[in-house]
């Protein structure tokens, strides 16, 4: 049995890599996004969306092996059309790192894929503090899996923390 025959219907799988994995400021890196349909039916109206992080600038591409591309407001959108079973579409673009990531806040760059009658798929490339190793195979825990209910606990903790900071700042301002 082939991989495509294991799934009833379309099953596009999205992945994203960057080479080199940890580029330095001023360095060029190549982003490669692949979408492969591991299902047994066509994935129709496939659209891949890739927003650029605000510390990177597009310097080459984007290119795709299938479909058309638009680039607007720092978002690369690929209209890949139909992805038959077993077929892969590859999108590449080159970026230059313009400034360092924040030391205390991990940043994640996620690419999305949508298709007709399907759910959104995410491929995330997590970036940690400047030169710490990070995993490119495991999405961050704060992103829900496709079709799952979002976990709002981290958002609630963030809002409570922000409210505490604002209250503290108001008290200091009154002194």
Please give the structural blueprint:
Elements: E1 12-19, E2 28-37, E3 43-51, E4 56-64, E5 68-72, E6 75-83, E7 88-97, E8 107-114, E9 121-127, H1 153-174
Antiparallel strand pairs: 1-2, 2-7, 3-6, 3-8, 4-7, 5-6, 8-9
Strand content: 35-45%
Total separate domains: 1
Radius of gyration: 19 Å
Compressed to H and E, one letter per element, the order equals EEEEEEEEEH
Strand order of the largest sheet: 5-6-3-8-9
Here the CATH topology equals Immunoglobulin-like
Helical content stands at 10-25%
Summarize the biggest pleated sheet.
Answer: 5 strands, antiparallel
Low-confidence stretches: 1-5, 128-156
Compute the number of strand runs.
Answer: 9
Tertiary shape: elongated
> Any guess at the CATH architecture?
Sandwich
Briefly, what CATH class? Mainly Beta
Helix and strand content put the structural class at mainly beta
